[in-house]
Amino acid sequence: MSYGPEAFQADTGASDQAMADLGRFRELLIEANAVMNLVGPSTLADFWIRHALDSAQLLKLAPTARTWADLGAGAGFPGVVLAILLKDRAGAHVHLIDSLGKRCRFLEQAVTELALPATVVNGRAEDQRLKVEVVTARAVAPLDRLLDYAQGYLDRGARGLFLKGRKAEAELAEARRRRRISAQLIPSATDPESRIVSIESARLVR
Fold first, then answer.
1. Where does S-adenosyl-L-methionine bind (predicted)?
2. What does the pLDDT average to over 182-205?
3. pLDDT on residue 1
4. Residue 182: pLDDT above 80?
5. Is 126 annotated as a binding-site member?
6. Facing residues of 122 across strands?
7. What is the mean pLDDT of residues 48-68?
8. For the residues 144-165, what does the mean pLDDT come to?
9. Domain ranges of the chain
10. Is 165 one of the annotated binding-site residues?
11. Is CATH 3.40.50.150 the right assignment for the domain spanning 5-159?
12. Is the pLDDT of residue 114 over 80?
């Protein structure tokens, strides 16, 4: 049985306006993906579970968080989905950070057309000096390297919520060779083999 918008709305409690925004974002993604590689084309048929729900599940883990940074935001997962779902929350803002200009132009189009509480930053994640409540990323790099990008955000008090696949436990073990990490692995709502790495703190071992 396919997982569609009705199931997504039932699982997340998304408003009708958020559902309309997500539907339009899906259309923008399909259009852009035809000319540049944002996501695997075969995954678009499973948009509502592979991309939308996979992103939205983070909100249940940080229900009071208003400020987020999505590192390597790429196609907008999880950042654009989070911005859509946080659109009506006072003070909410998502920073969409990516080093590639063409991906940033796609993100700008989505942010502008959907009037999202988000800012697109064309630059290296580790060069930014943003203070946010949550730093997140999906499909950017192995966890050890990802933490190099995210370290400044964590040092400024952010919690890390990183969407990872079946190698999450091994990646966390590898990252702990260079850092003292307070973390837990949370099962993904969309894939029994995937995990969300929740990091409260990470300190480089000198």
1. 72, 77, 125-126, 138
2. 96
3. 57
4. yes
5. yes
6. 98
7. 98
8. 97
9. 5-159
10. no
11. yes
12. yes
